[in-house]
Structures are given as C-alpha cells and as structure tokens.
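ok so I'm stuck.
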Amino acid sequence: MVYKLFQVTNEKRIDKGTFEYLDQAMAEYHRVCRDEIVFQGWLAEDKIISENLIRIDTGNNSIWFEIEVTKDEPTE
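replied:
not stuck anymore, here's the structure
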C-alpha cells in the first residue's frame, strides 16, 4: 500500500508526501502541524471517509488533512 498525505486549505490540496506505511504518513502529519502550522494536532481524530481515504479533522474548519490509500508502488 501507498499512503499519500495532503493538507487541505481553502479547498486546495497541498501534497505533503508519499509513504509506504500509515505510521510514516501520520508522523509527517504531526511534523507539519508542529513545525509548519504551529499547532498541535495530537488530539486530532482520524476519520475514515471510505476504504481509500482517511480525513483528519484538526478542529479548524479551514484546514484538514487527507491520506489517500492506494495500491501503487511508491515513486520516491
């Protein structure tokens, strides 16, 4: 499986990386929250939208994260 992390801001999807494991994608999500957005996303709730999309709500209606789950091989 491949996990693609996106930050969604004002309906724009910003690619934050492609990962081999879900734990790696979640670690990058936490790094982005801590270092780039400067808020702690530790309490965010994982919410599965469908079998191939995980949406992570941050409590801020204008920013959330999505992780797409695909069967493609990583390109990095």
